[in-house]
Model the fold of this input.
Amino acid sequence: MIQQNLHDGWTVRAVPGTEPVPAEIVDRTVPAGVPGCVHTDLLAAGLIDDPYLDDNEVRLGWIGHTDWTYTTMVDWRPGDDDRVDLVCAGLDTVATVTVNDVEVGRAENQHRSYRFDVGSVLRPGENTVAVRLDSAYRYAEGHRDRLGDLPNAYPEPFNFIRKTACNFGWDWGPTVVTAGIWQPIGLHRWSTARLATVRPVVTVTGAGAGAGAGGARGGGAGADVGRVELHVAVERVADVPLTVRATIADVTADVTVPAGQDTAVVAVTVPDVRRWWPRGYGEPHRYPLTVTLHDPAGTVLDEWSRQVGFRTVTLDTTPDAHGTPFTLVVNDLPIFVRGVNWIPDDAFAGRVTPDRLAHRFDQAIGANINLLRVWGGGRYESEDFYDLADSLGLLVQQDFLFACAAYPEEEPFATEVAAEAAEQVTRLSTHPSLVLWTGNNENIWGWHDWGWQEQLAGRTWGRGYYLDLLPRIVAELDPTRPYWPGSPWSGREDLHPNDPAHGTMHIWDVWNTHDYTRYREYVPRFLAEFGYQAPPAYATLRRALTDQPLAPDSPGMAHHQKAADGDRKLQRGLDAHLPAPTDFDRWHYLTQLNQARAIQLGVEHFRSHRGVCMGTIVWQLNDCWPVTSWSAIDGDGRRKPLWYALRRAYADRLLTVQPRDGAPAVVAVNDTGRPWRGTSTVTRVTLDGEIRAKTTTEVDVPAYSVVTVPLPAELTRPDRATAELLVAEAGEGVDRALWFFAEDRDVTWPTADFDSTVERVDGGVRVRVTARTVLRDLTLYPDRLHPDAEVDDALVTLLPGETATFTVHAPVPLDGAALTTRPTLDTVN
Ligand code: BMA
Done:
């Protein structure tokens, strides 16, 4: 068996006469990156402007309307192989594949792989391999015209083609309709037989909960027994008996695939396995699993290997006094999900390198996140993605790729969706990090509430996928993993899909129409989306936009704000809470601050109801280009203040002040396996730092639970609401919690006054700020001085006399004076 990548020597050309192609590109043959796409090829050749800068995007729409042909030459030496296949791991999207001008196959689904037998068309010596990619628009619009338009949140035909939906533009994404060979392509020579699919069903029985929680697993008693049941399908050209051999943890099992058959099941039992645990619950142990296929002489014909993990996962949805819970249970332990939604990290998939993913996952972990939801408008991510999640103990929820639209169930879509789902379920089922499949994003909600039913007039819209086809495929191919028909979904068709009392919910009235304090009116069982916008980092804006000066509504800023009425919603949020911005830098600081405040308030409120609510998935972790959006990490990978707020709000041990029965109370949330015992001190203090009242209580929070401590009246009733706050502390290792009795805009703040020192340290500087007055949400923006400079903390509130220390990493020495003045250093006051 020989695999030969064909990643060299490719060129791409616009197919003559398909669309108005700019004159300089019409007859041009351009070097092409494979895997890659035409946008990045044209960019690398200097033929287009960067679509991510200014409003270049609007002048590049023709690319998605054009047909393209990718071509390369392959030097071919015949051997004695029975078969030679051209294997395409992913084509984007409507492809006709030829070898020496002979058509060998077609494709129309970005989310599938293809294998074409090319043995009879290859010639000794040079061969031409070409992939023609028809305009995704033409294909999608053709089906739309044939079937009639269907409801859709955006005016683009993405629901009529199996291709990454957000490629057609989203409320945070550019419209860059790509074409390309987006996954590896190569020749596969083989004889006798090959492994067509290998699908391990991994189970574990034994001690379960508690055995590994907290990372402290005692040996001996209650050993866990792992079992891997391998479902193998072979493709064969010779009718001989074959042997499949599976090996894991020094245990080997064989099975014979008799002549004439092409499937077999072989099971391996592994005694005394160490379980795979999610972050915070134990180590994510994995075991290399190898499957080999042998001919009657014992020769290895094919080999497949993965790292699997032994863990159980169930969804607890047993109705209770509050409705229908939605609790993820891993190894018998209910998990509070501290999640974020994941969108494609770049509109051009080829740029999302393993290093970039590793960095992004580090950032996620740094913010105390334990789950990524791969959202349905994006893509099934790469093996690198799920492998990293496996190795880090990050949980993954995977949506099937349907978002914010009605999807036709007519052909060719029904067949494509079934094939795509079967392939992706088989591929991803090997990953222990994957704990949940979801049918779609917001489509069942859309059908209920967004006026779809009238427009559909009885036509299909995807219900058959979400409630019939996909659950059948998951049950058949991935029987150990839960499936939930939609995000949101309440568990039954007679319930509203976004009912807070049942299943999962999205909260979007906050942001769209209501103030963020409204989060406190909801106690959802599981919150799968909620978000609040802010602009990206200053350095990101300056790289992407030439606006002079930058203003909230300057042309580039306006172009890089895709949300309906986004700027007005940002302003509405500012007006409700913060003093009016006086210039762009203030606007930038205050909108970023408001985003962080909104989400922190939401997360802390929802976590304070741990038990009823068992998870929050913030919309959204990342961006795919420089844009004002709901993300915590911007399109250039820079952390917004929200990231620091998330790190606090998602901490294992959270101390927070929450309104209870009209008065503030202290809530301690313990998301660790150890009890949290300590002393908590709450003071009512003036902005000048004068203590007005103080109380000390012992807190004793059992593992994985929450305790509310009511406060005496002298703490909860300020003498002057606009000049006082509560400070709650619980000792080392727990961030203190603050409670202001008034909105910042109503407070008469003293003008910020402080002493500062700036000291060179290895790789950067240390900035110490000692407050002379209260400093509200002190934030340092070193990226304003150097684009690669990063700071370790943000949004720090100091009372007079207190000191904050910021460590700034920077590749060059930074100007100390600039570091300690506006706009690089800013506070509300
Ligand atoms: C939800 C998501 C996305 C969208 C976000 C912000 O609808 O599922 O489709 O980007 O809200 O509007």
Summary: The mean pLDDT is 96. The domain at 2-189 is CATH 2.60.120.260 (Jelly Rolls). Residues 96 and 106 are 5 Å apart (CA to CA).
